[in-house]
Amino acid sequence: MRYDNMGQKVTIERIEEVPAESRVCHYDELGEAAKATLPALTNDGPVAVDGSVAAGFRDCDLVKYTDYYEISVR
């Protein structure tokens, strides 16, 4: 799924296998804005994502929530 706001794109995709070199963040390690938004990002509907949310994902390749999700912020 992709969401675009102010030129930033966040891509989130559920994955089955976790590469050994991945930086994995657990849900409880995310910033408050990212934690508040992650459940909506896992749904199919559009979600507006602001810069504080995108910043909360920048240090992670993957997030462990209900499953492992690959995160890309551009």
Write up what this structure looks like.
With 74 residues, this protein is an alpha+beta fold. Helices cover 23% and strands 32% of the residues. It has helices at residues 32-41, 51-57, and strands at 2-5, 8-15, 24-26, 62-64, 68-73. It has a five-stranded mixed beta sheet with strand order 1-2-5-4-3, covered by helices on one side. It is globular.
Lay out the secondary structure:
Layout (H helix, E strand, L loop, with lengths): L1 E4 L2 E8 L8 E3 L5 H10 L9 H7 L4 E3 L3 E6 L1
Parallel strand pairs: 3-4
Antiparallel strand pairs: 1-2, 2-5, 4-5
Helix pairs in contact: 1-2
Protein name: DUF7979 domain-containing protein
InterPro entries: DUF7979 (IPR058285)
Keywords, separated by commas or semicolons:
alpha+beta, 74 residues, 5-stranded mixed beta sheet, single chain
* Overall morphology: globular
Number of domains: 1
Number of helices: 2
- Helical/strand content category: alpha+beta
Strand content: 25-35%
Trace the largest sheet across and list its strands: 1-2-5-4-3
Order of helices and strands: EEEHHEE
Pfam family, one: DUF7979
InterPro entries: DUF7979 (IPR058285)
Domain DUF7979: 9-71
Protein name: DUF7979 domain-containing protein
Summarize this entry quickly.
The protein is 23% helix and 32% strand. With 74 residues, the chain is of the alpha+beta class.
